[in-house]
Amino acid sequence: MTTGGQKRLREYLEKIYRQKTKKSLAVHRRAEKVMIKGGSHSLRLFAPYPVQIVGAEGACVRDADGNRYLDYWQGHYANILGHNPAVVRSALRSAEKRGALHTGFEAASQIELAELILGQLGYKDFRIRFTTSGSLATMYTVMLAMARTGREEVLKVGGGWHGASPFLLRGIKFDARRGFGAAESAGVPRDLIKRTWVVPFNDTQALEDMLKRRGERIACFILEPVLGVGGFLPARRDYLKEARRLTERYGVALIFDEIVSGFRFCPSGVQRFYGVVPDLTAFGKIIGGGHTIAAVVGRWDIMKLCERRPGGGPRVMFQGGTFSSHATYTLTGAAMIRHLVGQADRIYPRLAASGERLRRGVEAVFRDEGVEAACTGGPGDVLTGSSLFMVHFPRKPWPALTPEVLNDPLYSDVAFREETLKLALLTEGVHVMHGGGAISTAHAAADISRTIEAYGRIAALMKRFRD
Ligand SMILES: Cc1ncc(COP(=O)(O)O)c(C=O)c1O
Fold it and tell me: What pLDDT, in 10s, does the model give residues 437-458?
């Protein structure tokens, strides 16, 4: 599309959106007076103003004006069973009956959740500790790795988002000048972030070169086995196997961030499919049953550094926080995981089939209108299916399917996806994150069809406003 065409399309969509969401605007005006940009999470605060979600059920959310949206945001991908699933509601009722919603004490439900997660991974001599957010979980994994190795440098992949841990705020957004090398956040000491190195995803040679150069100073290599916000791209099996071999050779702790991938592809981490055992894993999102539970799973000899250091010295201050291992939320988490384990044969193939249909369907409707678009989120060489999808608008032929290409504005129109496609889908009654999102078991076949049709109408609009 030409810049002029994009501008006119944007104006056309904004008019419809403003018509549909007058109450959302009123709520936003009120919020703006007390909160920066009117909210607490930048991703939710898009232009011209965010839609105000006031209710949710199953596959849908409802806004202040009474509009319904098929929701692929699904609680930042946490709600694999859709909004308010019966298993979670029932766990919440039993917590309420028990009458102690926040005690600050450990509850038996955390043991069940721990047993379920560790049991599904099936490793010997691993332990788990809970906390309240994915950001904290990844931060603790890095601290544990540093304590174990006595080193103070970190290695991550370009496009990898691990939450707001200060160690990991580098190489997330593609920067026109520096690729994925830039530091992302003010307020992080330069000396700290200079110790974080970034390598390209799925590139064994780059990893080997980096470890040859700095391996003896690097405490850990952290990555998502299925890259999330960077493009929903699965790691290749040989890459993860080599990552394991190389990190072992250089004495570097291997950390998997399975905060998105954990329990999304199977009732465990995807590491189970890859046959690669990391030293530490961060889980979050799905494992809380829609509530604030995250966890670190790791080798016993590393995890024990939370409580004591061999030969003295301070332990790793992995306290988890006031609400850590919350009695109600470990109950909802355990109910969720028990359900996913018990119903795995039904749930995961169905999610995979919906994902396949949606990805193919969306690509087809753009193709039919002669609009260049591609959908990532598919399974790759190890996973058998996937319920994730992300739509991209190539600007010129892609030399490879990498996070660099998906996020470089020279190759992909990221701004159009993040701003205009999002608005267009809202006018169509579909709510997405990064041009797509995560399918839940609450999304029926008819919902997938409606979603594909919505993308189809947007493809037609893009054609209409092309010049
Ligand atoms: C892969 C990954 N790691 C870590 C995080 C941070 O988790 P939280 O938002 O719970 O802090 C996220 C959040 O989206 C994530 O996608």
Answer: 999 999 999 999 999 999 999 9
Domain ranges of the chain: 3-84+346-464, 87-342
DSSP-derived 3-state class of residue 153: strand
Domain 87-342, what fold? Aspartate Aminotransferase; domain 2 (3.40.640)
The residue nearest atom 7 of ligand 1, judged by CA position, is: 134
- Ligand 1 site residues, Cβ closer than 6 angstroms: 76, 133-135, 138, 161-163, 224, 228, 257, 259-260, 284, 294
> For the segment 144-195, what is each residue's pLDDT rounded down to a tens digit?
999 999 999 999 999 999 999 999 999 999 988 889 988 889 999 999 999 9
C-alpha of residue 226 to centroid of ligand 1, in Å: 13
- The pTM of the full predicted model, rounded to 2 decimals, is 0.97
d(CA 263, CA 294): 13
Q: Pick the atom of ligand 1 nearest to 77's CA.
A: 14
> Could you tell me the distance, in angstroms and rounded to a whole number, from the CA of residue 382 to the centre of ligand 1?
23
Residue 223 and residue 235 in contact, taking contact as beta carbons nearer than 8 Å = yes
Specify the ligand 1 atom closest to the Cα of 258.
1
Q: Which ranges constitute the DSSP H helices of 372-444?
A: 403-407, 414-415, 422-427
Say how many Å lie between the CA of residue 26 and the centre of ligand 1.
Answer: 30
SS3 (DSSP) at 350: helix
Among 137, 91, 145, 143, CA closest to 113? 91
- What's the gap in Å between 64 CA and the centre of ligand 1? 27
**Closest Cα partner for 80 from 287, 358, 375, 384?**
287
3-84+346-464, what's its fold?
Aspartate Aminotransferase, domain 1 (3.90.1150)
How would DSSP label each residue in 19-47? HHTHHHHHHHHHHHTTSGGGSS-GGG--S
Task: Please state, in angstroms and rounded to a whole number, the distance separating the CA atoms of residues 188 and 191.
Answer: 9
Q: Which two three-digit tokens encode residue 176?
A: 């026109």
